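ok trying this again, last paste got cut off
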Amino acid sequence: MKLIGTSKNAAVLAGLIAVGALTLTACNDDAASSDTAKTPPPATTAPTTAAAAPTSPVATPAAPTTPAAPATTPAAGAPPAAGGGATAAPGTTVKLGEAVQLPFTSGSTKGTISLAVTSIEQGDPGDLTALKLGDKAKGLVPYYIHYKITNAGTTDLSYTSVGHMKGLLADGTEAQDLLIIGSFAKCPSSSLPTGFTNGQSATACAVALSPAASKVAGAEYWGEPYTIGKGIDWK
């Protein structure tokens, strides 16, 4: 469900997304198989020789030599990421402030980033007033997930955006997302700046909503190639 909120200075589109169970559909490619009919070789007729004719010895040709199969080099495992370190596996959990290296895709741009959730800040329900969410935000408390992005690869990531960051409640379930298009002073976030090449860093922020009786205690990045529930967690 998406909600539209407006403020005096900017139009803000806010969406409260109650994320339920994510169903992954695996497409199985059933390769068609068929039995190949084997045709028996044609019958051969033994040559007829004259009874009185002397038998000449027949030279037996040498058996053809089968060339030895070329030696193969065992796989050395997945290649290292462009930044030189191993990429984080799906389901990895690290502490707040700890950076992990992971592949990053934004449209046709692909690269490698180092990502760290640096802090999770509790906001005030009154922060949402400017978004004019009305009763739909009643009983919910905003939390601001701050994270740092560093270009760890060789691709220029200028003007791309690192989103797909969501909150995790104290019991491990998913918090509600608040998607905002436009500026929101309490949790500023924007596209990566121009000249965002190897070693450059930037910060971003995502908003998560929690019932007053709980709190946002962690965060998960689930951008490609990860998925919700199988992403990178900070707790």
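PB: full thing came through this time. The longest strand covers residues 109-122.
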